[in-house]
Design a protein that fits this description.
The chain has helices at 11-20, 40-46, 49-52, 70-81, 93-105, 120-129, 152-161, 182-190, 216-219, 228-231, 250-260, 267-303, 338-348, 371-390, 413-418, 456-467, and strands spanning 86-90, 111-115, 132-136, 140-141, 146-147, 167-171, 178-179, 196-199, 223-226, 239-243, 309-310, 321-322, 326-330, 355-356, 360-364, 421-425, 439-440, 472-473, 482-486. The termini are far apart. The longest helix has 37 residues, at 267-303. It contains 16 helices and 19 strands. It is α+β, with helices and mostly antiparallel strands and 488 residues long. α6 (120-129) links the parallel β2 (111-115) and β3 (132-136).
Length: 488
């Protein structure tokens, strides 16, 4: 039976179950030996069963780096389910897939075209590979303080100026569910016979319902990385990398993955990919229809609450489609930041967003949500709006505006990473070259990266994010009183 006709099978999950239930004397890692050495507090939290399945690369379980058995079969099934020609399971999250994609296509000094709002994992790929970024600023919507996609026209202009680029990478969809014109970008990229790499971390569900945006592979992507755990039913950190076409050197990709994946991958995570694939392959259309229905209910009710706006498709550059399971609610018209709203929703009203930002909050509505969840979300926003009318003191702040980098990096991220650095007061760092990767998290989009000029606008934005209650990662000084800069 071919993989396309056998999606009910779970070869890796079955192999793990069989080995878990096989009595034997274990003289191999991990040290807890099927849970016998696990501390009682962990057993109290998780139960004992999960630890019996925490197994290493036993013969029956195959090997992630040279799959010939259960993993190979599971990956083949995923290949068919997601419309790829080749699929790799990722136990180190989409981060390792993004890094491997860059390593597989770019070497030291090679150019890669990518949007300035790329995830920080891509910057890690640049540092490790030595590739030179050719940044294209995405289209920016100041009304929503949201960066959309880069446009086909901007991609074409970048390739015309840098025809020696080795790859193009884009984000599709963005954290807010915004999708650019990927099909047009793919056609332009392929005119130069180079691969289009796609960070599709938030779009693993696109292949399973016609009312969702077009999947990246269908639109012409050569390689795409999906966080199966973000929108489908896998465990956190479990992702997949898919390849289609002949522009990716598979052997080079395999070698790159060996650099960035653990040599002791969690079979619990890998088996969760097998199970999530089976679930979405067999029941995807039904599950996504239910998810879309819940999302539309939330959009309809919240958009009627005074002072709140819900992001809908916009006729603006870089906005070709919207993932309607992604709900972004603007709260700035209430006179409150997204950070303050998130604090109230989370700590007082038992509703937790995925992404708070200065003007809005974004919620992931997925196959795991229920009608009760949506009811609680609508109720929480109704209460929040009621508090606005009472004008609670200390909750309101002006929303900062995301600064876009005005110029390309003067050093490559790799050069800046390895260059001698020094720590200076933040106000003395302006006009110096940054030696850190600094970004509000989530979404993990760098405001400053190694090799870029530190601008007053960037420092001011980061300080306003902190003052409003946001979190900053990557900087050696969490209070942002000092910054690391390239030594002069």
């Amino acid at each position: 039976m071919s993989p396309a006709n056998s999606q009910e099978q779970t070869p890796l999950l079955d192999a793990l179950r069989d080995r878990t239930n096989h009595p034997h004397a274990p003289f191999y890692a991990p040290g807890h030996k099927g849970g016998q050495g696990i501390s009682q507090p962990l057993i109290d939290l998780f139960g004992a069963a999960v630890f019996r399945s925490d197994l290493p690369e036993l013969p029956e379980l195959d090997n992630l780096f040279n799959p010939e058995g259960a993993i190979a079969e599971a990956q083949d099934l995923a290949t068919a389910a997601f419309g790829a020609q080749s699929t790799r399971f990722l136990a180190n999250g989409s981060t390792c897939g993004i890094i491997a994609a860059i390593l597989a296509t770019c070497g030291p000094g090679d150019k890669i075209i990518l949007p300035r709002n790329i995830h920080s994992s891509a910057i890690s790929g640049l540092i490790l590979s030595g590739a030179i970024p050719i940044f294209v600023n995405p289209e920016y919507n100041p009304d929503w303080d949201i960066a959309n996609s880069i446009t086909p026209e901007a991609t074409a202009a970048a390739l015309e100026q840098h025809p020696d680029a080795k790859a193009v990478m884009i984000v599709y969809p963005t954290y807010h569910g915004v999708c650019g014109d990927l099909r047009a970008i793919a056609q332009i990229t392929h005119q130069y016979n180079i691969p289009l790499l796609v960070d599709e971390a938030h779009g693993a569900h696109f292949n399973f319902h016609p009312n969702l945006p077009e999947p990246a592979l269908s639109a012409g992507a050569d390689l795409t990385v999906q966080s199966i755990h973000k929108t489908l039913g896998a465990m956190t950190q479990a992702s997949m990398l898919h390849v289609k076409g002949d522009r990716i050197d598979i052997q080079k990709l395999n070698r790159a993955l060996q650099l960035v994946q653990s040599t002791s991958p969690s079979y619990i995570l890998l088996a969760s990919l097998d199970a999530a694939r089976q679930q979405i392959a067999l029941h995807g259309k039904e599950l996504m229809a239910q998810t879309l229905q819940l999302a539309e209910k939330a959009r309809s009710h919240i958009s009627q609450i005074p002072g709140l706006s819900v992001l809908e498709p916009l006729n603006t550059p870089g906005f070709a489609a919207l993932d309607r399971t992604r709900l972004t609610v603007k709260v700035s018209d209430l006179g409150i930041t997204g950070f303050a709203a998130d604090e109230i929703l989370h700590s007082e009203l038992a509703v937790t967003a995925e992404l708070p930002m200065p003007q809005h909050l974004t919620f992931i509505i997925s196959l795991g949500n229920t009608e009760t969840d949506i009811d609680n979300l609508v109720k929480a926003f109704t209460i929040l709006e009621g508090r606005r009318r009472k004008k609670e003191e200390g909750r309101f702040a002006q929303s900062p505006t995301l600064p876009l980098s005005p110029s390309p990096p003067l050093l490559s991220p790799r050069e800046a990473f390895f260059f001698p650095a020094e720590t200076v007061p933040a106000d003395k760092a302006v006009d110096r070259l940054c030696a850190e990767l600094i970004c509000p998290y989530p979404p993990g989009i760098p405001v400053l990266m190694p090799g870029e000029i530190i601008t007053p606008e960037a420092v001011d934005y980061l300080q306003q994010i902190l003052a409003a209650g946001g979190k900053i990662t990557g900087c050696s000084d969490p209070g942002l009183q000092t910054l690391k800069v390239v030594r002069q």
